[in-house]
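quick one, two chains, predict together pls
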Amino acid sequence: NPYAGLVSRLREAWLSRRTRSLEYRMAQLEALGRFLEEKKQDILQATALDMHKPNFEAYFSEILLCKNELNDTLNNLSHWMKDEHVDKNLVTQLDSAFIRKDPHGVVLIIAPWNYPIHLFFVPLIGAIAAGNCVVIKPSEIAKNTEKLVAEMLTCYLDSDCFAVVTAGVEETTRLLENKFDYIFFTGVPRVGRIVMSAAAKHLTPVTLELGGKNPCYVSNTCDVQNVARRVAWGRFFNAGQTCVAPDYILCSVEMQEKLMPALREAITEFYGPEPRNSPDFARIVGDKQFKRVRALLSSGRVAIGGQTDEKERYIAPTVLADVQPSDPVMQEEIFGPILPIVVVANMDEAIDFINARPRPLAIYAFSCDSKEVNQVLERTSSGGFCGNDTLMNVTLTSLPFGGVGNSGLGKYHGKFTFDTFSHHRGCLHRNMGLEAINSPRYPPYTQQKLGLMTATFEIKRKGMCTLL
Amino acid sequence: MRRMEEVVGRARAAFKSGRSRPLEFRLQQLRNLERMVVEKEREILAAIGADLHKCGHNAYSHEIMGVLGELALAMEKLPSWAAPRPVKKNFLTLRDEAYIHPEPLGVVLVMGAWNYPFVLVVQPLIGAIAAGNAVVVKPSEVSEHTSQLIADILPQYLDRELYPVVTGGVPETTELLTQRFDHIIYTGSSAVGKIVMAAAAKHLTPVTLELGGKSPCYIDTDCDLAVACRRITWGKYMNCGQTCIAPDYILCHPSIQSQVVENIKATLREFYGEDVKKCPDYERIVNKRHFKRIMNLLEGQKIAYGGETDEASCFIAPTILTDVSAESKVMEEEIFGPVLPILSVRNVDEAIEFINHREKPLALYVFSNDKKVIKRVISETSSGGVTGNDVIMHFFLATLPFGGVGNSGMGAYHGKHSFDTFSHHRSCLIKDLKMESTNAVRYPPITEKKLGLAKFFLLKRFNKGRVGLLVLTLLGIVAAVVIKVSCS
């Protein structure tokens, strides 16, 4: 077990109770802030090398959103850490009853390559805020970012309590043999199952942020140009390599007609006539992924884009029309800059289509009629939902971010990350005196005692007269 | 074994029909469940009595009372629990609707345990119904009378397709676990908990595992021993020690050990009389296998009190062991019987160290007149839950989440925590299709100006004051107008 030494070292640091005080946690979090600030250029450079991530996108997702989460936590941590006092029943009226937020211990964060800083950084904020020791395993696929994190992150943090592990598939499997007190995994469902099975051996709780095909329903009553812009933005951000990107459109054949020129206009507006030359458009992260996405182009009919360049791993912002549910592009999460349009007769058909498939991480619905948006919301299930826009639901720190069913379990962002990495411990601190109050519960049992117990323990329905 | 597939399939189809979702339906089912508990009270008490030799009063206060309380709470609070929960918005979403929408998960599996065979199945069932799910109920086969009763009466009161009861032993349970569920709640041992979680992993099913462990009980020298020992005696020997949150063992200074023993002895006589075997208020071990298991733990131990047994009736007298070594068999596994080992520690530091070197327990108890001692023990240890200066009682407060941590489990339930456990908390952001100008900042092509505006709008500042927020909001609106004008 090559990682046993590392894990036991962190566990010893954990037992020393160093990570518990508010001051310690704030100091580590502030150091994380300095990492973001001082290594900003390195981060922009590394992500540009890894997937040609445009500076603005990298700044937005890897720096700005991370800073927001960090500041939200720094602003509120002392409040979140406080014991939460709860309502009491009659028998506990004179006691102290509260929920204590305890750290779990030594936790593991496994991050993917598409937002390689953000997707370990935001969980890390909550893990540190909750008082844990952390092992971070960044993705080996985003090689430059992995190197940056391995070399530079631990200089900012207490290296007794926080460690970065660089590992491929084999080593990660060995890493998972160790006992952790929590595992936070972001990646594909197939690996999510492997992580959860490994966790089961140690009864380790998990959060799995997975994926799926996020449907995007576009109604006939909508402002077509605005829809096209918002959908194009969400789809082609990071060249489509976003777990909450709109994966495919569901609309009527008339709307498909209208959307096509609007999408073409939006794409040109964003990336110019030759997206390959735009500094604002990313590339596919690796050759294996490039080949996989390129193969999906042979579905339906290429209405916009379709150009590729293997050397650059460039796939043009592409829209496919007349796509059939049985086409290759509809069998897996696309995770690339391809937007298929699947024609449905009406909203009911769109809802049935969505419900016949595994529950996705996000569902999008566009309509000027708020009743329609509501219908899609009420009659479907997904991790999250956004009406009349894409992606934005995950930028609000007060909304929990997570999947359901195949798209994951657990949630985070904002206070939810802190709660994820804490154990909520129910505590009742009773009075040693007033023993008389307890006497109805002791044997020998009598009918009278039972009556008294019922009166003091029970929660009565409001508005019901006890005389009856 | 296609039966499991059929039962679960029917429940899923029933869930997909949507009928378990309207609040009125859920409330109706909960009302029916309440009627069942009231109308079938005699039969329920008799079944529990047959399984555990438990007297009616005990069965009522341990199992029926809690269930009626949960039902009353759920029925009263359901509309507020199920309502959308608005969240705080940022500048860009000020004009939007942002809320968390609690939704049912789908088909929930409830696996009960034999020690409190009715409440450990019905209490999760209440939360799962309240959250709008279909529920497959699998009571423990070890408590066979209660299991059979539940299988008989539940379908008489509840929707049969949505809430089927499945009975059976290990082979049936194994088959059941191959099916896909949307949440599994299991109450039982850590060993089986691992099996349940491994089965759940194949379907990415979230789990709540209510397991066990050795719940320590530290008695400080500065303490009213008579009161402390009476409370401990109550919690330890109820249900013949077969309680997941029973105080498993005592840690105390050797100088008070004999006083502790004397106090517990006196309390036992007060509770159960001179002949505990004849007392109707004292239960039995559930079966021969567990009887033998507990007998095994007594091997080589110094019995300070009790120790009488009768295998034919699975009777084990309330027993106290003293000068127990930390390495002995009785300290290796959860006792789950009426045997109370007392171990010596010199002070609270030693007690804390002792506790922290073992798996995290489901419950932790500390008795002291000194509030600081209690606070210290809570702060320097970890456990599912805690009661200070008493035992068991944190279980009865529905506002406290009830669950384990580490080896004692994951997840929690009771009261609103049940509703939340069996719901999916779906984040919803509903924007306007108009006001496109505020979005312009994020679209390529990116300019320095756009980057600056993005930072201005989106970056949360550290320690901003409320006035600052107002000013920034106003500036934001002004800026939005400015952008609209400059982009048109």
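The radius of gyration of chain B is 27 Å.
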